[in-house]
Amino acid sequence: MLKCKEQVHGHLSVINGVGSWDGKVQKKFPLKQVWDFFRPKLPVVSWYKLVWSQPAMPRDQFLCWLITRGYLTTGDKLLSWGYQGDFNCAFCATAVETLNHLFAECSRYKGLYSCLFSKFTSRIPSNSWEVELNWAVTAFAGPSATCRVGRIIWQSLISSIWRDKCKAKHGKQILSLEKVQVRVKSDLEVLCEAEDVGKFL
Ligand SMILES: [Zn+2]
Fold first, then answer.
1. Which residues form the Reverse transcriptase zinc-binding domain (predicted)?
2. Rounded to an integer, what distance in angstroms lies between the CA atom of residue 86 and that of residue 90?
3. How close is the Cα of 119 to the center of ligand 1, in Å?
4. What does the alpha-carbon distance between residue 15 and residue 24 come to, in Å, rounded to a whole number?
5. For position 8, what pLDDT does the model report?
6. What is the CA(100)–ligand 1 centre distance, in A?
7. What is the DSSP string of 134-164?
8. From CA 189, how far away is CA 199, in angstroms rounded?
9. What is the number of domains present in the chain?
10. What is the extent of the structural domain holding 143?
11. How far is the CA of 137 from the centre of ligand 1 (A)?
């Protein structure tokens, strides 16, 4: 705290009765510069635009951020923490639930990927979450309508896998691939009023 106070005093001064930062007289106090001074500066991640660009459904963006950060509690984490139970994949039960399994290897991911991206690409998805994420980052990097829609669909795909996984774990019925497709299309229609979403999905 004391160190912080010393740092602030090195930059903050009062010139002609107005608070200033780094000795420059400005009409308004430069709050942004002060905030930039204090906030931790980390390198920009490659998936920043894929997850956070607009338009988007905030609920999907937030889940995608947690997933790309690896913050969600997958079965392998629970096992490593000593919990007992069935931590196999809730969709296929063929492997322990890991980030890589849910968002690359699992038949649910591959099925949804084919369903949602068939008009975008004939690419066959890999078995690696890292490869899948990098593909989406590159494929939907631009400002075009295709990229904007692609980012929204990717966010829907990733977030719906996690939501449906949670439902399945609690014994609830999950949506068929076709119904997920219908829901994503209706989200697209809301978010991209001016676009002809039918040509993408
Ligand atoms: Zn699975």
1. 29-109
2. 9
3. 24
4. 8
5. 66
6. 10
7. HHHHHHT-SSSHHHHHHHHHHHHHHHHHHHH
8. 12
9. 2
10. 48-199
11. 23
Ligand 1 mean position to 47 CA, how many Å? 24
Answer for the pair 162, 63: CB distance below 8 angstroms, yes or no. Answer: yes
Structural domain contains residue 72: yes
pLDDT tens digit string along 79-125? 999 999 999 999 999 999 999 999 999 999 999 999 999 999 999 99
Give me ligand 1 centre to Cα 155, in Å.
19
CA 99–ligand 1 middle distance (angstroms): 10
Token pair 């920043």 is found at 48
Summarize the confidence of residues 29-50 as an average pLDDT.
84
Torsion of CA 187, 145, 135, 66, to 10 degrees: -40
88, β-bridge pairs: 96
Residue 196 φ/ψ, nearest 5 degrees:
-90, 90
Determine the distance from the C-alpha atom of residue 159 to the mean position of all C-alpha atoms in its chain, rounded to a whole number.
8
The rounded Å distance from CA 42 to ligand 1 centre is 34
| Each residue's pLDDT tens digit, 157-191 | 999 999 999 999 999 999 999 999 999 999 999 99
* 92 located within any domain: yes
